[in-house]
Amino acid sequence: MIRFLVANQRWRLWLLAAAVMWFATRFHENGHGWGDDFALYVNQARGLVWGNTGDVTADMQFSVANSAYSTFSPIAYPWVFPVLLMPIVAVADIDWSLLKLVPTAGFTLTAVALLVIARRVTSRRNAALATLLIVVNPVLLGFTDMVLSDLVFSGIVMLSIYLLDRWVEHRPFASDARMAMALGVVIALAIHTRREGLALLPALAAAQFIRARRSTRQGVASGHDKGPKARSVWIWALGSAFTIQVLLPAPILNSTGTSALDLENITFNVKWYVNSFAQLFGFNDGGDAPIEFLNSVTAGQTVLILITLVTAIGIIDGLASFFWREPKTTAHHSIALIAVTMIVLIAPFREQRYLFTVLPLFLLNTIHGAKALGRLYRLDRTFDWGLTIALTCSLIGNLPPTVASLDYHREYEYTHWGPADPSVIELFDAVERITDQRDVVVFFQARSMNLNTGRLSIQGNSESMMVERGDWYAMERNSDYIQTPLTPERAEELRFVSVWENDRFILWKIPSDRHTGSGIG
Question: Could you write out the DSSP letters of every residue in 273-299?
């Protein structure tokens, strides 16, 4: 039996997936940190279970319209991630340990898909190293502890790339119709997970062009084509995306009311993402820390620059192949990387987690760049080993923080300072007990307040705004994070009445006359 499992590639992949999943869960802790994007995702999932998605979006629309600033959240996120959370919410409601398994599964799918794709275009050694760079990445492992869509999206994109590879090379895993359906539906799911999924449409177009050119040269187009027709794939992709949007509408192109396609953001974002990207490769400890390797700034910057240059060569080689008589079957990898990166860079907001899908696509193009250089100089083995050295350097940079983090999680257990913290639970219970159903609560994490209490909630940053729009003010003591701290004296001047408190929060009753009065700032 053991020999069968080891010999069978499919079972090896399942065993690998189980091992990666188990390893990632070692980095999970109790509860969930603040954010609070996760709260809207979970609320949408619960809306699907309870059948009141309209109420969820209406409450969110109120929050966005009445908060001090309206760019902190869309009215609803794309629905694929909430749909994946829905079975857990239906069975266990808000169980963070179970909900975190969904992004952890996305992380696992990313790693396994990268291995399968990379093994076909490079040595087993480099494919394994590239996959390990995902599996032991401390940043990615840390985000498996959060209920966010980024890792799930990365997994869906890599699954799409795998299916595109099979389509281009006329290697369907099933009948024509099923292959077309699988590829089209997976692309549609990516689009409705994160807006960067739109990048798969130009990748699909590139793959279609490559496939047509190769079919013509190989005589496949004259009656021997075993893959799905191009039109069928597009019908499934666009048709599925349209159907999902009709059934569960959510903004895709512009989710926060800000300019979603602003090229002026690119320069600033490139500078902002440099250190974040270096951290993913193990050459930065986060924030403004220097880019270095083995305590050498020169070594760290040199290795990262070399990796980037090799990747650029891989992209150029993939794009240039469109002009060859027989384009490369992996040129759509370059298109996908360019398109995803551009969507990330033109956004008016930025988070390191937006790079999670860029990383595996970047690694694929790094592999292509090393192969292109080896072919150009007829030094295939030399550049293959050079890639091995570069990936090993990155692994060496990532291993110490990963090991330290794993040791920490083994020794200490704690509950995140967030919605599952005992003092926060006390606050939510007090809000439910004291306030009326449609009262408006001002709180620095409005979406979490709405999720856990069902109350309308807004985020405020001034006294006048709270008085004009709120009924209650749940204030965290000694903090000015997305809130206006009040002293007892100032609260008395504003006629705010303290009706409940614990060691971390005070729940103030805001005067109901809604007059701003003198002295209100």
Answer: HHHHHHHHTTS--STTPPP-BTTBHHH
Q: What 3-state class would DSSP assign to 460?
A: coil
Q: Assess contact for 318 and 362: CB atoms under 8 A.
A: no
- Between CA 329 and CA 331, with CA 330 as vertex, the angle to 5 degrees is 100
Query: Quick one: average pLDDT of 172-190?
Result: 85
Report the distance separating Cα 467 and Cα 471, nearest Å: 8
pLDDT class for 390, splitting at 50, 70, 90?
Answer: very high
Does position 77 have pLDDT exceeding 90, yes or no? Answer: yes
Structure tokens given for 395: 């692994």
Q: Quick check: 183 and 228 in contact, CB under 8 A?
A: yes
At 353 the three-state DSSP class reads helix
Q: Which tokens go with 179?
A: 């292959």
CA distances 91 to 47, 64, 88, 450, Å, are 14, 30, 5, 21
Residue 174, pLDDT > 70, answer no
Q: In what order do the strands lie in the sheet with 472-476?
A: 456-458, 440-442, 472-476, 505-509, 497-501
Mean pLDDT within 155-178: 85
Distance CA 498, CA 508 (A): 4
Token couple for 290: 């220097």
Top pLDDT among 304 and 257 is at 304
Residue 408 near residue 402 (C-beta atoms within 8 A):
no
What does the pLDDT read at residue 163? 94
- How does strand 472-476 pair with strand 440-442? parallel
Distance CA 276, CA 351 (A): 9
- pLDDT score, position 193: 97
Residue with tokens 């969930």: 32
What is the distance between the alpha carbons of residues 13 and 8, in angstroms, rounded to a whole number?
A: 9
Sign of CA dihedral 128, 129, 131, 136: positive
Backbone angles phi, psi at 169, to 5 degrees: -95, 10
CA-CA distance, 305 to 312, in Å (whole number)? 10
First to last CA, the chain: 74
**pLDDT at residue 214 is higher than 50:** yes
Q: What percent of the chain has pLDDT over 70?
A: 91
The H-assigned helical ranges of 346-415 are: 358-377, 380-411
Mean pLDDT of 194-210: 94
